[in-house]
Amino acid sequence: MTLDRDRALSFLNQMILIRRFEEKCAEVYSAAKIRGFLHLYIGEEACAVGALSALSEADNVVATYREHAHAIVRGTPVGSVMAEMYGKANGCSRGRGGSMHLFDVSRRFYGGQAIVCGGLPIAVGLALADVRLGRPGCTACFFGDGATDEGEFHESLNLASLWNLPVLFLCENNRYAMGTELSRHTAVTDLCAMPRAHGIEAESVDGMDVVAVFETAERVAARVRETRRPRFLELRTYRFRAHSMYDPELYRSKAEVREWMTKHDPIDNFYAWLRKQGFASEEDRGRIEQEIAQVVARAVEEAEAGPLEPVERLVADVYRETPRR
């Protein structure tokens, strides 16, 4: 592993921030301050932190409805993300999208897609635009294993390969899609076999290891930019929480979840590695936790104090009437 101390501590900081932010989201959701659906990323933090840290500001990012972590790592202010959860006008989507529709054009973060696999055609379009306009970046598209069952998945991979588009397809395989174990919803559980059928190079990495994700994504993204060809990276991960706050989670045992949380927590395991490398101390962990607690508390204050969208703007950006001739 070639990670330097400063970047390593940054990774730890970001993963803890995501975890505490989402724990707070679950708390305020239970208090009915956040409405609608809420899909938590707890357990998968190494995927977003490792992969997004390998990208440049010139790259596009498209995510799923489980995208709080992606927005935060990409640089969208935590207060703006929390305000969006609350449906406030100071949210990154002016409170119109909520948890599943985070958006930040200034950082080339194009959602937040509530439809399973809905982001893949958008990613292909963004990459096509970059090719036509001569821009050098790539488009990173995150999606879950459940998306591989959709026709859009194969259509998008086919076109990206056919048209030589610089798309980095990032499959966050948490093994359960919405609530069905992988082998029960797909006949081919080797998810890398599917992109290879479309002529796209593919590989897998341990999505619970932030360093492995970062180093692999950095190498693969560089190849996408260099060759202007798509690549596929499977991030083998596991979510510690149910699919959503509405999910009774009857499809897996509590013992299985407990084992993953005990043995494979990406934060605890990475922190142990940092200690072994001499990069972090117990005091560092405590200091980071205190600082992040203040950041999350301020985000909640900002969200609760934020204004609602004025009634007169409710149809703005939704419908445009064509003037009569």
How is the topology of this model organized?
Elements: H1 5-30, H2 45-52, E1 60-62, H3 68-74, H4 78-86, H5 119-133, E2 139-144, H6 151-162, E3 167-173, H7 182-185, H8 193-197, E4 201-206, H9 210-227, E5 231-236, H10 254-263, H11 266-277, H12 282-305
Parallel strand pairs: 1-2, 2-3, 3-5, 4-5
In the CATH hierarchy, the third-tier topology is known as: Rossmann fold
H/E order of the elements? Answer: HHEHHHEHEHHEHEHHH
Can you summarize the main beta sheet?
5 strands, parallel
> Strand order of the main beta sheet, please?
1-2-3-5-4
Mean of residue pLDDT values: 95
Tally the helices: 12
What would you say this structure looks like, in words?
This protein is of the alpha/beta class. It has one domain: 3-Layer(aba) Sandwich (Rossmann fold). It has helices at 5-30, 45-52, 68-74, 78-86, 119-133, 151-162, 182-185, 193-197, 210-227, 254-263, 266-277, 282-305, and strands at residues 60-62, 139-144, 167-173, 201-206, 231-236. It has a five-stranded parallel beta sheet with strand order 1-2-3-5-4, sandwiched between helices. Helix 6 links the parallel strand 2 (139-144) and strand 3. Helix 2 (45-52) runs parallel beside helix 3 and helix 4 crosses helix 12 (282-305). The radius of gyration is 20 Å and the shape is globular. The model has no long low-confidence stretch (mean pLDDT 95).
